[in-house]
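hey so i finally got around to running the thing on that chain from the lab meeting. sorry it took forever, my laptop kept dying and i had to restart like 3 times. anyway pasting the input first so we r on the same page abt which one it is
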Amino acid sequence: MAYEVPALPYDYSALEPFIDAETMKLHHDKHHQAYVTNLNAAIEKHPALGSKTADELIADLAAIPEDIRGAVRNNGGGHSNHSMFWTIMGPHGAPGVGGDPTGPLGEQITKDFGGFEAFKKTFNETTAKQFGSGWGWLVWQGGKLAIVTTPNQDSPLSQGLHPILGNDVWEHAYYLKYQNRRPEYLAAWWNVVNWAEVSKRFELAKK
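ok and heres what got predicted. didnt touch it at all, straight out
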């Protein structure tokens, strides 16, 4: 099968003023599309792999033939990471979007980090320090939540971790609006986090 960029579940402008429409157009239509195009080109060399999802490919990179492993790691990771990224955001003020997480996820965050504000502070500080391009993640690991970062388009899936939430800190994700002010972007991003979707990922990770 050929991999495809999933449609956004909202309009390009739906995340304004926190993420601008032009950034969303470029990020989704150009950057994500490039990862998908390159992933499809790599998989054409080993068609049997085409039955696997991008998540399955990057969860077991050792099983990927060496001649395309780097391309799958970078572009399969880019496809997987972004496919998740679009779903865990939504219009500010929509049900389950912005504010504090509630229910079991909110309780687990309080248990593991001492409260949402403490978690958010640690996540922002840790992710802001990611050198160059990469991602900040909230993952499920060994029965608890943890914050990790990855360079480039590497995924926690490749480390046997379950990503619950991730924020893209490649410059293409924020530079048109925030320029070099990564911490400002990180702070604003919480306004569009879709906690309803993140909670679904949390429940799946625990199984």
